[in-house]
């Protein structure tokens, strides 16, 4: 798939826990040479795996998608509306665990992977649409690029900044809170507290690493690698605490 490489590069950490079986955009059937447009991305985990929300939002639909409603063919479907008035659709679920009106945080389970509706195997069809009539039917956008932009906006937002301290001393750079998790700059932190730790960059899988340990939560912001603070602390052998009042990630030498 031509779009696969680009799509994978931009995936937010939670999305990389899946294997992408079909990307967003025009698909060519090699047998017939006919083209179709895939309005979401197909993501695969082991059968019946829990499906967690990629972005927080309020549930506006949790039901079986009936023909003519804007979600026909998608089987058991959960739709969340995010704070930017975009709809996040989780389709073909075996079952759903939320109801209309629920506030759902990123990382919360909305249902289990399945193949209800028009699906030939278990997978998650994840689609992002601008809100509109019939649940934004036809107003789809590339979900990988949308979530990359969403994540970038959150991480850059000064209101989401967090401090970082090491053994009680505040470090001269900051991290950011994205959907309840703090992300810290990998190289700056390793140089400040890593005691000679080697920072690596794998350009094929687009992951940063420390001393040979890949950081699966890597996210690139302005060509700088960030990673989830807990994974980063583990790779650096540090203890970590979160000071919620001061909004500071506290790192200390592990005993
Ligand atoms: Zn699909």
UniProtKB/TrEMBL annotation:
Matching InterPro entries: Cell_wall_metabolism_enzyme, Dup_hybrid_motif, M23ase_b-sheet_dom
Matching Gene3D superfamilies = Glucose Permease (Domain IIA) (2.70.70.10)
Residue span(s) of domain M23ase beta-sheet core: 37-132
Superkingdom of origin = Bacteria
One GO MF term, please?
Answer: metalloendopeptidase activity
Q: Entry's PANTHER family?
A: LIPOPROTEIN NLPD, PEPTIDASE-RELATED
| Protein name per Swiss-Prot or TrEMBL | M23ase beta-sheet core domain-containing protein
């Amino acid at each position: 798939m031509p779009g696969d490489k680009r799509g994978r590069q931009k995936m937010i950490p939670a999305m990389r826990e899946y294997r992408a079986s079909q990307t967003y955009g025009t698909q060519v059937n090699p047998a017939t040479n006919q083209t179709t447009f895939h309005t979401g991305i197909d993501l695969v985990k082991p059968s019946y795996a829990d499906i967690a929300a990629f972005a927080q939002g309020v549930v506006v639909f949790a039901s079986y998608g009936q023909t003519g409603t804007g979600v026909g063919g998608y089987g058991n479907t959960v739709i969340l509306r995010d704070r930017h008035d975009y709809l996040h659709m989780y389709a073909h679920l075996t079952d759903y665990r939320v109801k209309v009106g629920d506030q759902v945080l990123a990382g919360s389970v909305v249902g289990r992977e399945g193949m209800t509706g028009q699906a030939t195997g278990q997978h998650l069809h994840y689609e992002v649409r601008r809100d509109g009539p019939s649940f934004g039917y036809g107003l789809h956008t590339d979900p990988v690029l949308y979530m990359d932009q969403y994540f970038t906006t959150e991480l850059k937002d000064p209101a989401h900044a967090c401090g970082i301290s090491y053994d009680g001393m505040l470090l001269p750079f900051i991290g950011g809170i994205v959907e309840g998790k703090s992300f810290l700059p990998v190289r700056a932190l390793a140089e400040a507290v890593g005691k000679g730790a080697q920072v690596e960059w794998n350009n094929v899988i687009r992951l940063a690493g420390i001393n040979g340990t890949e950081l699966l939560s890597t996210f690139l912001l302005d060509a700088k690698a960030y990673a989830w603070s807990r994974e980063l602390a583990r790779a650096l052998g540090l203890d970590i605490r979160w000071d919620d009042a001061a909004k500071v990630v506290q790192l200390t030498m592990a005993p």
